[in-house]
Amino acid sequence: xxxxxxxxGYSGGVIIITCRYNRKYTENAKVFCKGQNPGCxxxxxxxxxxxxxxxxxxxLYDNTSAAVFTVIIRNLSEQDSGTYQCxxxxxxxxxSYTEVKLNIIT
Length: 106
Hints:
The chain is mainly β. The chain contains no helices and nine strands. A hairpin with a 2-residue loop joins strand 5 and strand 6. Its main location: membrane. Keywords: Membrane, Transmembrane.
């Protein structure tokens, strides 16, 4: 794991999660998924670089020049609390994902 981060949001609100990745994964699709690695379920992923992708309450943008991707979750609820993964390589090698612990306050 590159890192593990904890973020807190408020029920009904919006949260922005910033995930850093190793520059060797710049060309890869980026995925934000819920659950443990491996076997987490994809919520949103990039199809190409340099543009926002939207899926329901989730948005994702891959800033390849900074080696960071940003995930936005809107209309948060208690059910969103839990463990997520920011992944930059489907091999799940140790340096290719960041674990995100999300806590929602009502």
